[in-house]
Specification:
By secondary structure, this protein is mainly beta. The strands form two sheets. Strands 2-1-6-7-8-5 form a six-stranded antiparallel beta sheet. It has a two-stranded antiparallel ribbon with strand order 3-4. It is globular and about 50 Å long.
């Protein structure tokens, strides 16, 4: 089982983490970039965009960014995140909100996210 663990700010204590609700049918697909063929260590990691539902927990974390009159959320902010696989940490990085999709017919809202892994310093 894949989980996305996010924090409200850099250096936040573990008790302030939030597990975002994910769609089971839309997995997080990562791209790993390897610079040296003698070492399989990834030098950069990023995901394709993926959607998460606008559930109660997700709305609280994103501070209801989908509300048109909401001014609390800055779309340029990256939040610290970890991808867990079966409870074990797989990758650390940041998550960034890209877009918000609203389907009026189905009364459904989704957040489109991008995961950016930690990269090597220049």
């Amino acid at each position: 089982m894949v989980q996305l663990k996010v924090y409200p700010f850099e250096g936040a204590p573990a008790d302030q983490c939030v597990f975002l609700d994910l769609y089971e049918t839309q997995p997080i697909k990562l791209t790993l970039s390897i610079e040296d063929i003698t070492s399989a260590d990834a030098t950069s990691v990023f995901s394709r965009t993926f959607k998460v539902p606008a559930t109660r927990d997700n709305n609280e974390f994103f501070e209801n960014a989908w509300e048109l009159d909401s001014i609390d959320f800055d779309i340029t902010i990256k939040k610290p995140a970890q991808i867990l696989v079966d409870g074990a940490e797989f990758k650390q990085g940041h998550v960034r909100l890209q877009k918000i999709f609203t389907n009026q017919d189905q009364d459904k809202t989704d957040y489109e996210l991008l995961f950016l892994g930690e990269t090597r310093d220049f």
